[in-house]
Specification:
InterPro entries: Expansin_CBD (IPR007117), Expansin_CBD_sf (IPR036749), LolPI (IPR005795). It is found in: Secreted. This is Expansin-like CBD domain-containing protein. With 138 residues, the chain is an alpha+beta fold. It has a single domain (5-133), classed as Immunoglobulin-like (Sandwich). 15% of the residues lie in helices and 34% in strands. It is built from one helix and nine strands; from the N terminus they run αβββββββββ. The chain has one helix at 5-25, and strands at residues 43-46, 54-60, 68-74, 81-82, 84-87, 90-94, 103-109, 115-122, 131-133. The strands form two sheets. Strands 5-6-2-1-9 form a five-stranded antiparallel beta sheet, with no helix packed on it. Strands 4-3-7-8 form a four-stranded antiparallel beta sheet, with no helix packed on it. The protein is globular and about 35 Å long.
């Protein structure tokens, strides 16, 4: 079992229950309802298996925009690179070469197509299984 796996599983379970509750209240099924985290900044929990060649994280506390259409990561040197969605709110990148921080993260909303950029949110000395908080939200 991966260290920290229990916390990640609990977080996913809570997120799933919260979305199901909101969708039911809105009278629909099959659509992901927006979660409301007003006054809370977006956080990124780096997966325990992340390395300089493979980066994965869960996006937490995105406010009121439903699912994300895209997530892109920008290392210290280079442009933004698209990430792949693994599961709801969990994104990954297999870079093919070592990446170094600090990392900027660009998020695009699936509903409004609104874009926010968390500047230098994951530091140069980042560690797996850590949460890094931004100062932005939708």
């Amino acid at each position: 079992m991966v260290a920290g796996g229990g916390r990640r599983r609990d977080r996913r379970r809570w997120r799933r229950k919260e979305r199901v509750r909101v969708v039911r209240e809105k009278g629909g099924l099959g659509a992901c309802a927006a979660c409301l985290y007003q006054g809370t900044e977006i956080a990124f929990h780096v997966d325990a298996g992340s390395t300089p060649f493979y980066v994965a994280f869960v996006v937490e506390y995105e406010n009121g925009e439903g699912d994300l259409a895209s997530v892109e990561i920008q290392p210290a040197s280079g442009g933004f690179m698209p990430m792949q969605e693994m599961r709801s709110a969990e994104w990954k990148l297999n870079s093919g070469g070592p990446l170094s921080g600090p990392f900027n993260i660009r998020l695009t909303s699936g509903e409004s197509r609104k874009v926010v950029v968390a500047q230098a949110v994951i530091p140069a000395d980042w560690k797996p299984d850590q949460t890094y908080r931004s100062i932005v939200n939708f």
